[in-house]
Amino acid sequence: MAEVETAPGTLRPGGRTARVRAAVLRAAEDALIECGVDGIDLAEIARRAEVGKTTVYRRWGNAGALVADLLEDMAEQSVARTETGSLDGDLRANARLVVRTLTDERQGALFKAMIAAAANDERTAEALHRFYATRIQEWAPCVTQAVERGEIPDGTDAPEVIRAVSAPLYYRFLASGDPLDETVADRAAHAATCAARAGAYAKPREARP
Q1: Are residues 45 and 131 in the same domain?
Q2: Which of 97, 203, 208, 111 minimizes the C-alpha distance to 160?
Q3: 156 has which bridge partners?
Q4: Separation of CA 92 from chain center
Q5: Cβ–Cβ under 8 Å, residues 120 and 107
Q6: 62: domain CATH number?
Q7: Secondary structure (DSSP) of 151-199
Q8: Looking at the domain assignment, is residue 92 inside a domain?
């Protein structure tokens, strides 16, 4: 069997290696929150994590690889979707989770720093895209289940519905600065539900599998 080359920082064995990775990723989070992407200096991260600089440079190599690994870890640790038995309830749970994350003092600052880093680093941008693709994939089945229950039309594009829920929330978070709360979350979820019921996200018949 041919060997597969593993990118720096992506190995996940247990024991000391896992503990070192956890410490370094936590230190990277702290640095991002405190200083933004400019705070991701590998030597400083090693100092914060109380591990050897050589270890950090060998496993991650550069700041982009470290931030990418942090995003992968965040995707793995993300909260699983909620199943309420209705599309509106499921999307409301999704929207409220997004709002709780973005308004959390630590997580909100971390996401802003990640998005800023992605704007200037291709590897970080790719990792951020994978993170959100993972989250959309996690929540898309609630739309598929709604189709099966007859709540919304056949051929509804499940990922597009999930994107429609979070898009106005991220707009407030990153662009307008308008308040983010459960009322806003519920409104975004309800709007996406109504649009889905009206067929706004149904794929053209020729585009369906």
Answers
A1: no
A2: 203
A3: 202
A4: 17
A5: no
A6: 1.10.10.60
A7: SS-TTB-HHHHHHHHHHHHHHIIIII-----HHHHHHHHHHHHHHHHTT
A8: yes
Whether residue 9 is contained in a domain is answered as: no
Structure tokens at 148: 């099966």
Measured CA to CA in angstroms, residue 27 lies from 1, 33, 88, 173, 206 at distances of: 37, 10, 38, 25, 50
Instruction: Please check whether residue 110 is in contact with residue 32, taking contact to mean a CB–CB distance below 8 angstroms.
Output: yes
State how far the Cα of 29 lies from the Cα of 21, in Å rounded to an integer.
12
35 shares its domain with 138: no
Query: Tens digit of pLDDT for each residue in 111-136?
Result: 998 888 888 888 888 889 988 999 99
Per-residue pLDDT reduced to its tens digit, 13-23: 457 788 999 99
Domain that holds residue 173: 78-207
Amino acid at site 41: D
Residue 46 lies in a domain: yes
Provide the domain count of the chain.
2
In this structure, are 29 and 131 located in the same domain? no
Q: Name the token pair of 74.
A: 């965040």
Whether residue 4 is contained in a domain is answered as no
Residue ranges of the chain with per-residue pLDDT less than 70: 1-14, 205-209
CATH number at residue 163: 1.10.357.10
Query: CA-to-CA distance for 70 and 122, rounded, in angstroms?
Result: 15
Whether 93 and 178 map to the same domain: the answer is yes
Q: Helix H segments across 36-121?
A: 42-49, 53-59, 63-77, 87-103, 105-118
What's at 126, amino acid-wise?
E
